[in-house]
Specification:
Elements: E1 20-24, E2 28-32, E3 39-43, E4 47-52, H1 63-90, H2 94-104
Length: 105
Amino acid sequence: MIFSGGILSHSFEIDAKRQGMFHGAPAVITYRVPTKVSLQEAYSTPILPLDILAERPTENKLDWLQRLLAKYGSQLSVVSIVLLFIYLVATPSKASAAKASKKKR
């Protein structure tokens, strides 16, 4: 018996006999409401499709970097150009540093 507001969970085990997609149907939950005579029915969340015994291609170690560059490559180049410009403007050149040292003498 589950009381009002109670939580119940269930688990399942798959014994794979062949390779392919597994689609699980939602569980049927039957319960009685104290104010009603008839039994009530509800359905659990369905199991997402599972690819059983699927042969996965080996993933290249740099795939994540390639996906990142493909997604954010243009923004990354703009940010790097702006940072390079700020660095060049903020850093004094050698010629102006040499002139400044001559003026101090």
